[in-house]
Amino acid sequence: MSTAMSTTPSTTSTRLFLGFVAGFFSNLIFQDGLLGILYAAHLVPALGWSLTPVPPLGVPMSLNLAFWAGLWGMLYALLEPRLTARLGWWLGGLVFGLAPLLVFWFVVLPLKGAGVGGGFHPAKVLLSVALHAIYGLGAAILFRAGLALARRRVGASPEALHG
Fold first, then answer.
1. Which residues are CB-contacts of 74 (< 8 A; sequence separation ≥ 6)?
2. 143/18 Cα distance (integer angstroms)
3. Which of 15, 26, 85, 106 is the most buried if burial means most Cβ atoms within 10 Å?
4. How far apart are CA 31 and CA 87, in angstroms?
5. What torsion do the CA atoms of 11, 14, 20, 23 make, to the nearest 10 degrees?
6. In degrees, to the nearest 5, what angle opens at C-alpha 74 toward C-alphas 73 and 75?
7. Which whole number is the average pLDDT over 15-31?
8. What is the model's pLDDT at position 163?
9. Got the DSSP string for 15-76?
10. Ramachandran region of residue 42, left (φ > 0), alpha (ψ -120 to 50) or beta?
11. What are the angstrom distances between the C-alpha of 81 and each of 6, 91, 152, 156?
């Protein structure tokens, strides 16, 4: 492995790993955190965090959703350079956060027989957009923090010092 490769945290595998972690934790912290705030304000009927088992494996719902959010985070990691170049990092994250929502509305719900957008009820649309935008912003923040930590770690490694 070349010295240039060992001293950069921007390899595809590193970006994918950081993207998964950023997406996973953005769901649990930012998205469910917003739901917690809205629940405390009596604006939504339930908290985001749930241990309700999801079939077929019985994984808690929160971990199931965080896993899928992690996969979306991997896609964000691949698209991040283009999004950041065009929109800036925070706006790129906000815009990216809407991608899972659009897939949910226009692919998942129709496949489940619920129709496009599940009927697009105005209150649910506004809540869904806010939750997905905060997910995208959270993923962008956590991803950038992960890249910064990876750069610091690589900068302090023995290979970097001798390279």
1. 16, 19, 20, 23
2. 6
3. 26
4. 22
5. -80
6. 90
7. 97
8. 42
9. HHHHHHHHHHHHIIIIIHHHHHHHHHTTSSSS-S----EETTTTEEHHHHHHHHHHHHHHHH
10. left
11. 20, 13, 20, 25
* pLDDT confidence tier of residue 7, bands split at 50, 70 and 90: very low
Contacting residues for 140 by C-beta, under 8 A, at least 6 apart: 22, 76, 80, 89, 90, 92, 93, 94, 96
Average pLDDT on 137-158 reads 84
Classify residue 33 by burial, with Cβ atoms within 10 Å: 0-12, 13-18, 19+. middle
* pLDDT tens sequence across 90-139: 999 999 999 999 999 999 999 999 889 888 988 899 999 999 999 999 99
Q: Token pair of 120, please? A: 């697009």
> Is residue 10 predicted with pLDDT exceeding 80?
no
Residue type, 143: F
